[in-house]
Amino acid sequence: MASRLYSGRRRRFMDRMKDGVAIFQSAPTASRNGDVEHPYRQDSDFFYLTGFEEPGAIAVLSRSGRKRTFTLFVQPNDPEMEVWTGRKAGMDGAVEKYGANEAYARTEFAERLPGILTNRDRLYVRFGKDTDFDGTVTRAIEALKAEARKGVFGPWELIDPRRILWDMRLCKDPQEIKALEKACEITKAAFGSAMRAVRPGMGEWELAAVVEFEFRRRGSPRIGFETICASGANATTLHYISNDSRIGADYLVLIDAGAEYQMMTADISRTFPASGRFSEPGLTVYKWVLEAQKAAIAAVRPGVTYREVHETALNVLCRGLKSMGVLKGSVAKIIEKGAYQPFFMHRIGHWLGSDVHDVGAYFDGSKSIRLRPGAVITIEPGLYFPVSDKSPEHLRGIGVRIEDDVLVTSKGNRVLTEGLPKEPAEIEKWMAGPDSWWDGLKPVSIKRG
Ligand code: GLY
Ligand code: MN
């Protein structure tokens, strides 16, 4: 049962906290305009511990010796409101479906908090996101301190729970990996469709719509981040999301997108020719990025540092920049001077999970962190030649990034996005395939006998 997954996570969190109380808040709702709100997405930390997707909730975990409790404050059932917004879990649902030991209306939180914190040494809480919430918590603590003469005290230690929680979230559990596999499968299918749907003259927006249409019809409730569909020189802007240019016949197209599935997101980038055939000089740039990407993926295994993976790719990219005549001197000197930075200005990748740039440390003290089994890292080298004096003339306007999602396993790694073409010949073959997405559009939600 799903609630066992979340109770297991709460137990593991409480195993790692000291005696005390931990409080987590749901994501706020965001007004779009008038009385219309942006689509709601739960806070990743809150979801991780509760599986609860409604706004206006607070979770309280309490550990006192062997005694552990889980209390949920939620929006109560409101039949009048539910005519508009649908049925909510309410307090009964919080107990029955979400495994809370006790549940109260969210409006009772401020009133009940001093009781919850009375004579508790420690409070694990994240401040800084919501001033009302911060004020409620600090007022409760101060009210308890004022009762000292009655033998009452409030928490002495305030601890950020993210130190424990984000370390837990860094190494994915089997359910998270399963959800991520599905997110990757959906995203791969969408990229496959986009590669076949692209036509010179088409709008970037239309190609982005193909990607997101595929996400949605294959069961993803939302994108994990804004879709980047960048053609030609737009691909030299790392997070280009306006997607409002037309795709030229001789352009490369860079798509960087990810479907979310069960609150886990994929993150894939592919660069491919609008015409279906690679040509120079884009092909040479592409091959260097691909070589760097494959070398970095091969380096991913437990015990290797993030920095070593980054430097593996960097070495190949610098060899490429030298070979293409962009930079001169030894690779060691190019790296030492940072001469590559105008053309490769980001790191090799990031943790991936519930957030696209997922939580988890990149440093252990001052040292680059070592990869651990269960962590998922994107491997996404790129080379970018903006239209400026800094770029050699013949390469101006070329931007290439290739990105896969890589799970660190006990023996090495597993590429969760394996199988989506990335060798130039594979891409060309795929794009020339007879079963073009446009001609072969079929509903995937209806199974045919
Ligand atoms: N996919 C966007 C990024 O990694 O920043
Ligand atoms: Mn990425």
Q: How are the elements arranged and paired?
A:
Elements lengths: L1 H15 L3 E6 L5 E3 L2 E2 L6 H7 L7 E7 L2 E8 L4 H7 L4 H7 L5 E4 L3 H9 L4 E3 L6 H15 L11 E3 L2 H9 L3 H24 L6 H14 L4 E2 L4 E4 L20 E6 L1 E3 L2 E2 L2 E6 L8 H18 L6 H18 L7 H7 L25 E2 L2 E2 L7 E4 L2 E4 L12 E4 L2 E5 L4 E3 L8 H8 L18
Parallel strand pairs: 1-7, 5-6, 7-8
Antiparallel strand pairs: 1-4, 2-3, 4-5, 9-12, 10-11, 11-14, 12-13, 15-16, 17-20, 18-19, 20-21
Helix pairs in contact: 5-6, 8-9, 10-11, 11-12
The chain binds glycine and manganese (II) ion.
Manganese (II) ion binds next to loops.
What does it look like?
The protein has 449 residues and is an alpha+beta fold. It has 2 domains: 2-168, Creatinase/prolidase N-terminal domain (Creatine Amidinohydrolase, Chain A, domain 1); 171-431, Alpha-Beta Complex (Creatine Amidinohydrolase). It is 35% helix and 18% strand. It has 13 helices and 21 strands. The strands form 7 sheets. Strands 6-5-4-1-7-8 form a 6-stranded mixed β-sheet, with helices on both faces. Strand 7, helix 6 and strand 8 form a beta-alpha-beta unit. It is globular. The mean pLDDT is 95. The chain binds glycine and manganese (II) ion. Manganese (II) ion binds next to loops. Residues 267, 350, 378, 380, 403 line the site of manganese (II) ion.
